């Protein structure tokens, strides 16, 4: 809704309102399909306002819209809040952000380059 927003708001294209009970999920249609250049993807992300106020988020966040997908874009919402949430036609329920995807070709190798971190992870740094 603002000039420099990175996300395009996604509106629910539902006939009847969708009621999400606490813990429930639903695949909500947006009413559009799209095509884009092959070096792009689109990500479906939650809106922080509805996440904060109502506990509504995208279960598979960030959802991935592949550049070769031609079906309807849908949003997989889940209610992590404690009250039922109602989504009616036209409600903004998530946002879509476009990203460049590098052209990566994976190769199988015998050895990896060495680093100071090595295989350390999952809270490995900062320990004395
Ligand atoms: O939030 C989402 C996620 C995905 N999709 C559509 C577009 C995407 O290109 C396709 C496949 O999504 P994904 O790769 O996440 O699902 P999958 O379970 O791996 O299915 P597939 O085997 O079809 O790739 O479904 C949506 O409309 N909304
Ligand atoms: Mg897939």
TrEMBL record:
<dbReference type="InterPro" id="IPR029054">
    <property type="entry name" value="dUTPase-like"/>
</dbReference>
<dbReference type="GO" id="GO:0006226">
    <property type="term" value="P:dUMP biosynthetic process"/>
</dbReference>
<keyword id="KW-0546">Nucleotide metabolism</keyword>
<dbReference type="Pfam" id="PF00692">
    <property type="entry name" value="dUTPase"/>
</dbReference>
<dbReference type="InterPro" id="IPR036157">
    <property type="entry name" value="dUTPase-like_sf"/>
</dbReference>
<comment type="similarity">
    <text>Belongs to the dUTPase family.</text>
</comment>
<dbReference type="InterPro" id="IPR008181">
    <property type="entry name" value="dUTPase"/>
</dbReference>
<dbReference type="GO" id="GO:0046081">
    <property type="term" value="P:dUTP catabolic process"/>
</dbReference>
<dbReference type="GO" id="GO:0004170">
    <property type="term" value="F:dUTP diphosphatase activity"/>
</dbReference>
<feature type="domain" description="dUTPase-like">
    <location>
        <begin position="3"/>
        <end position="126"/>
    </location>
</feature>
<dbReference type="GO" id="GO:0000287">
    <property type="term" value="F:magnesium ion binding"/>
</dbReference>
<protein>
    <recommendedName>
        <fullName>dUTP diphosphatase</fullName>
        <ecNumber>3.6.1.23</ecNumber>
    </recommendedName>
</protein>
<dbReference type="InterPro" id="IPR033704">
    <property type="entry name" value="dUTPase_trimeric"/>
</dbReference>
<keyword id="KW-0378">Hydrolase</keyword>
